[in-house]
Backbone:
């Protein structure tokens, strides 16, 4: 209540200054407007948020949302804002040093542009394709995009011809007809013009941008994470299993919707970039855990399924630039929904199943070190891990074969020792070693636990490592940056945990 | 006999299988890292296509076979196991068939020019007798490192083979010593740009020219003996060059009269040994004889400095330099490595090397390949050293050479093995669609025409839609810009007789694992199987 009174007075004041107090940029109506960017139509909200997030690493600027900020930047050459709106995200230490950016500094894009020659000089000495080179390329791209936005060319609006969806023009074209002296009057003119164009555009072309706007506002990744957390909490507390089950069902529903919406928007199987594979593996893992848990009447499956789903969806929400939620165009060879939805989904689902065994293994490891565990329990958990491995391994083998058939069909060879396919075979072989080893006295149930935990590192290598560390070969789509550090942390954390816990487990 | 059974049991045992799979896995891990650092071809040559790696796979096949054999006669609970292992054997068998009888190559199609050569992956050394059109080839080994072959091929001996090499500049003795055919290396620079270049007059230094264009600047490399004439005062600004005696003179020195034609062209006539040479200095360096034919073999050449006064022209004569600046010709001499200033845009020139007896040559030197951004940036060339009647020549995959050996003209090439199709393939059109509003490709499509005995036929190829024709399959693999606004297409061409075997194996493997893991569970509990399985291996 306290806050409402002043804002009410402010509103009255604002209204008393006639109707020209309307601010085009600070107007939720524009969020739904369609833009053509990166090869597809999308709502301005998605484009503005993705672009500014890429440039600055943030999605709120002094409490002002991305769309309004993006809009004000697009207007800045014509109706300059009072203050600098955004600051670039510069992470590379060498670049920071060269540009003399102090931690407290607010370094602007204009300053970045002035230092372009410094960057070019630095690039000359950088190893081609190295991390500095990539970072400089990224910053040069920043400068390009920032200039594109501030000149009013980045924001595309429907042109008045409506011949094809490509008939778009930069918003700067409209500034020719707006009054130069008054932003408020320009706001009115632009608003009615763009709304009219948008309505016409929507009549002429089937346009999923509005739906995508709705989808973005649902914030399903965040909701799913919350539901997963609640489900785990209620399941762990022994008396509320039913509530836990309900929340599990809600999690599955939310994620199913998330996937369906993405499929509807992108018109392809939801496994085409790192973001989607992480999402799908968590989902597939959870689904398998629910089904196996149901038939085996074993709560543990549910817990490890939810546990893994929580980890993957946590990554989606908080990994920053490493996993981009952006829906972009695919390289031509991947544009085959039949193979995408069979080969890639079965591989990613297999990663989900193998991840379940990995979660279980780590639970046993931690439990054996910091709590107590007897042989009976170990055998029981080993059986659970074995079940997960079974599904994982057969899905993986099936997926590899499907991949071979697809490769044969579109490249003319069944197998080509491409790093991605070789690593998936390495994963299969490593799990084969464990499964065969279980039949000998080399891998007892106790040894099975650390082996399963460490084997998952090969999955991480095949999944992330090939893209982030090896980064070459035919599967070089979807390669994104910054993952090498994540992978390094993941590997060392797992190995440290093994070193700490394994001796006690084997002695027990 | 007992020990034989023991060996059989060991080969079919789980422990042996584990050892083999482990070796296989380690080799693959090494292979992927090699691939990442040194490129696909290097990984193939050091891991994937090597005998030890294939031996591991062969042993895995044997082990799988024995594992199944030892568990005969068939037991119902092992049906899934048999099926998986049969599937694996078939996949390995199919791969062997593909390896032995398959064809995997590519065909490069510039627009509208029919082709029938398929390039395969194997490297060969090819000798073509240009007189008899006879072709002999030698298969080069699948090695990743320098290898001395010592293989005879007629009069030629193949010596060092370098699968990865880079050209390195070396100053070598020419096989034919020709007097006064200098070679020099210069370094030209100003504050913004710098360029190192080599110029040579020696005919054996065929990779180096005697003139060069750097932006607006033309550089000419001339014999040292002509340098003094550039500095000589001469009304006519004409220099005559006697290539037999290697000396120069001006018309004024020889009292030659310069005349003008009716159209205003200058000409002069030189008489030497009863021959008359008529020169038109502004038109050609060569004289005309009395029948007005161009005398390309004339010992005399003419040179009009006037022609070179307008644009920046730099004349280099080994240790001397000449240029036109501020209405006069300047001739200067290099003083060691001190830079000489030039009259254009603050340029300076340094003579870094000058040789009168040696010639520059790009000699291939073995270099480990390095891959960056899917491209090799080191070790990019293959090269082979050939000994032809005691003379040694380097042949690179990007440069063939032609020799005369015992009167026969031979063309020596280092290239990929090729295969001739019984029909011609022509690219009528290459189409690349882009995503709306961007330049990123959305599809690659080739419109192909096959010219067969039955007449031409049209086909449309694109990603995920290959063309199958008489056992061969053509796939859209790549494309290239011809530089004239048109695109050429690269198709991969493939013949795989092992395909049905591999597919059958894959099917069995999938069905088998389903059978093994999910169906039999209903009848026996897992623990029982475990104990039984252990008994089998024990």
Residues:
């Amino acid at each position: 209540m306290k806050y409402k009174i002043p804002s009410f007075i402010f509103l009255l004041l604002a209204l008393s200054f006639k109707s020209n107090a309307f601010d085009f940029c600070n107007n939720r109506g524009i969020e739904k407007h369609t833009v053509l960017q990166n090869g597809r139509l999308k709502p301005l909200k998605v484009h503005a948020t993705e672009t500014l997030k890429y440039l600055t690493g943030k999605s709120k600027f002094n409490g002002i949302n991305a769309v309004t900020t993006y809009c004000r930047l697009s207007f800045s050459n014509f109706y300059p804002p009072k203050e600098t709106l955004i600051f670039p995200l510069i992470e590379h230490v060498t670049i920071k040093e060269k540009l003399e950016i102090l931690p407290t500094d607010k370094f602007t894009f204009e300053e970045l542009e002035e230092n372009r020659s410094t960057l070019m000089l630095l690039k000359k000495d950088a190893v081609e394709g190295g991390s500095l080179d990539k970072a400089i390329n990224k910053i040069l791209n920043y400068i390009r995009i920032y200039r594109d936005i501030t000149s009013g060319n980045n924001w595309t609006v429907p042109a008045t011809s409506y011949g094809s969806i490509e008939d778009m023009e930069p918003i700067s074209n409209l500034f020719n007809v707006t009054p130069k002296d008054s932003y408020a009057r320009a706001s009115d003119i632009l608003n009615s013009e763009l709304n009219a164009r948008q309505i016409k555009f929507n009549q002429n072309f089937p346009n999923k941008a509005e739906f995508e706007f709705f989808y973005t506002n649902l914030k399903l990744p965040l909701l799913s994470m919350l539901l997963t957390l609640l489900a785990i909490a209620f399941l762990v507390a022994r008396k509320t299993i039913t509530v836990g089950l309900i929340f599990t069902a809600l999690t599955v529903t939310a994620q199913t919707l998330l996937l369906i919406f993405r499929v509807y928007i992108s018109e392809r199987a939801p496994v085409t970039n790192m973001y989607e594979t992480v999402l799908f593996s968590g989902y597939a893992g959870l689904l398998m855990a629910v089904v196996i848990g149901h038939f085996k009447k074993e709560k543990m499956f549910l817990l490890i399924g939810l546990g893994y789903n929580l980890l993957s969806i946590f990554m989606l929400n908080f990994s920053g630039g490493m996993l981009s939620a952006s829906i972009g165009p695919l390289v031509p060879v991947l544009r085959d929904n039949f193979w995408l939805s069979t080969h890639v989904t079965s591989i990613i689902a297999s990663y989900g199943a193998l991840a379940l065994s990995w979660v279980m293994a780590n639970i046993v490891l931690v439990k054996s070190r910091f709590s107590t565990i007897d042989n009976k329990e170990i055998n029981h958990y080993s059986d659970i891990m074995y079940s997960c491995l079974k599904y994982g391994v057969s899905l993986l083998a099936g997926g590899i074969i499907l991949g071979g058939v697809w490769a044969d069909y579109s490249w003319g060879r069944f197998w080509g020792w491409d790093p991605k396919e070789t690593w998936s075979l390495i994963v299969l072989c490593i799990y084969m070693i464990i499964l065969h080893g279980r039949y000998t006295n080399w891998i007892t149930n106790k040894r099975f636990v650390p082996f399963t935990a460490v084997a998952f590192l090969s999955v991480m290598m095949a999944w992330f490592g090939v893209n982030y560390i090896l980064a070459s070969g035919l599967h070089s789509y979807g390669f994104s940056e910054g993952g090498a550090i994540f992978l390094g942390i993941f590997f060392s954390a797992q190995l440290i945990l093994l070193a700490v816990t394994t001796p006690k487990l084997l002695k027990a | 006999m007992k020990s034989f059974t023991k060996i059989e049991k060991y080969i079919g045992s789980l422990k042996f299988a584990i050892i083999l799979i482990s070796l296989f896995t380690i080799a693959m891990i090494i292979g992927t890292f090699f691939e990442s650092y040194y490129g696909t071809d290097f990984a193939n040559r050091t891991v994937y296509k090597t005998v030890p790696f294939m031996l591991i796979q062969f042993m895995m096949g044997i082990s799988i076979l024995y594992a199944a054999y030892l568990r005969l006669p068939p037991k119902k609970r092992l049906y899934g196991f048999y099926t998986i292992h049969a599937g694996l054997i078939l996949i390995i068998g199919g791969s062997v068939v593909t390896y032995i009888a398959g064809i995997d190559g590519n065909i490069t199609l510039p627009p509208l020019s029919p082709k029938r050569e398929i390039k395969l992956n194997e490297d060969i050394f090819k000798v073509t007798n240009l007189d008899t059109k006879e072709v002999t080839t030698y298969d080069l080994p699948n090695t990743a490192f320098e290898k001395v072959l010592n293989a005879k091929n007629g009069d030629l001996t193949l010596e060092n083979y370098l699968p990865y090499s880079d050209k390195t500049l070396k100053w070598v003795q020419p096989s034919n010593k020709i007097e006064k055919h200098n070679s020099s290396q210069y370094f030209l620079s100003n504050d913004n740009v710098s360029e190192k270049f080599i110029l040579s007059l020696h005919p054996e230094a065929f990779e180096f020219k005697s003139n060069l264009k750097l932006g607006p600047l033309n550089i000419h490399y001339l014999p040292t003996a002509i340098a003094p004439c550039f500095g000589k005062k001469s009304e006519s600004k004409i220099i005559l060059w006697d290539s037999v005696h290697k000396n120069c003179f001006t018309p004024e020195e020889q009292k030659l009269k310069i005349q003008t034609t009716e159209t205003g062209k200058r000409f002069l006539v030189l008489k030497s040994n009863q021959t008359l040479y008529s020169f038109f200095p502004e038109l050609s360096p060569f004289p005309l004889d009395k029948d007005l034919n161009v005398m390309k073999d004339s010992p005399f050449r003419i040179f009009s400095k006037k022609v070179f006064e307008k644009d920046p022209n730099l004349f280099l004569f080994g240790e001397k330099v000449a240029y036109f600046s501020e209405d006069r010709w300047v001739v200067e001499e290099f003083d060691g490595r001190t830079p000489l200033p030039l009259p254009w845009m603050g340029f300076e020139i340094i003579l870094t090397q000058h040789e009168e007896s040696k010639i520059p040559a790009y000699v291939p030197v073995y270099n480990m390949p390095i891959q960056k951004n899917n491209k090799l940036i080191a070790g990019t060339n293959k090269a082979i050293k050939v000994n032809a009647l005691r003379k040694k020549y380097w042949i690179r995959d990007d440069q063939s050479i032609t020799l005369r050996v015992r009167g026969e003209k031979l063309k020596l090439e280092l290239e990929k093995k090729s295969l001739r199709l019984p029909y011609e393939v022509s690219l009528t059109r290459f189409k690349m669609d882009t995503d709306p509003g961007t330049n990123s490709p959305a599809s690659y499509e080739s419109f192909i025409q096959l010219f067969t005995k039955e007449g031409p036929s049209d086909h449309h190829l694109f990603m995920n839609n290959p063309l199958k024709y008489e056992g061969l399959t053509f796939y859209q693999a790549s494309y290239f810009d011809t530089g004239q606004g048109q695109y050429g297409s690269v198709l991969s061409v493939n013949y795989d007789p092992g395909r049905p075997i591999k597919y059958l194996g894959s099917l069995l493997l999938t069905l088998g694992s389903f059978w093994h893991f999910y169906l039999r569970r209903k009848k026996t509990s897992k623990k029982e199987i475990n104990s039984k399985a252990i008994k089998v291996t024990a």
